[in-house]
């Protein structure tokens, strides 16, 4: 099976009830893009319109290798459109509040799976029926773990354990699959000369890594202080990756305990093989469909006798931690998010259609359309219907 053989094979439309009118200081826009990450597309818009980052707000990140539509707002933004290299910004009107993630009601997906055999299509259609009956486990998918290297190492875990030098070295110098040539060269220099801060400062180009090395020139052992000076967006990325990994393991443990191995299959993720239900016993259906698990952090207080507490303690015991220890000691920021995430989601308005694959002779294609709640991953549905083991 081929996914995203061309950008048009993966379409995402952000659905919102946010209304625009003639009043308010926040201009609302629709951003349509192809072949851009959301941050890169917004950076291009800001350059064209000379907009400070603090004036801009949006709700979610949309895939680079896709055709996507989403919304953004700009404080006192221009009431005009913009077209720029596969980016189209359409002015919709004014709002009294900025557009945020809370304004997203769902995301609508149209996904074409290519190079499939007749048997593969039949199996995927049968698996779609299982999803309609059993629901879809709401795991965080691989996109959430772009900061995790190979072998898997979590920068946030090193921060939690107080190993700030190791956390900083991972953040600045660990190689990643999609590093560009300049990043590879910079990281190789950091690894080769780690600890020789004056020499590193002289060799590194201007940028975030050099600014942290400059701090270490005058504070050579204050790795906690250097970690605290990591860009806030990177700090948030590292913490969300580790927290999401732990939450995934909590959900996997809950499914195994409650539904039982006889009712589960599995799919492969970047970091784990995780269970998915193929049957749900009638006496467990209500519990499964209403499941919400807290995001693990020191602010999620254990509840005696609650299954989620037992599951969280089991998962964290495997990490050598407890819930109360899941924080960055000695730093006010960053901190792990607080909240709950639904364990089971159901794709809304699902349809599917099979046809001859025009890009792969002798093969079939299967086009899926469905809506998912904000924060749920369409690629999890794709894995569920094509990659069960």
Percent of sequence in beta strands:
15-25%
Shape: globular
Task: Output the radius of gyration.
Answer: 23 Å
Q: Distance N terminus to C terminus?
A: 15 Å
Unreliable stretches (pLDDT < 50, length at least 5) are: none
Number of continuous helical runs: 12
Structure description:
It is a single chain. This protein is an alpha+beta fold. The chain is built from twelve helices and 16 strands. The strands form four sheets. Strands 1, 2, 3, 4, 5, 6, 7, 8, 15 and 16 form a ten-stranded mixed sheet that branches. A hairpin with an 8-residue loop joins strand 4 (56-58) and strand 5 (67-75).
Give structural attributes:
389 residues; alpha+beta; ten-stranded mixed β-sheet; two-stranded antiparallel ribbon; 12 helices; globular
How are the SSEs placed, and which strands pair?
Blueprint (H helix, E strand, L loop, with lengths): L1 E2 L6 E7 L9 E9 L3 H12 L6 E3 L8 E9 L6 E3 L2 E9 L8 E13 L1 H17 L1 E2 L17 H6 L3 H10 L7 H13 L3 H7 L4 H11 L4 H6 L3 H28 L4 E5 L4 E5 L4 H8 L2 E3 L12 H11 L22 E3 L1 E2 L2 E9 L7 E9 L5 H9 L3
Helix pairs in contact: 2-12, 6-7, 9-11
Short structural summary:
Helices cover about 35% and strands about 25% of the residues. The protein is an alpha+beta fold and about 400 residues long. It starts with a strand and ends with a helix.
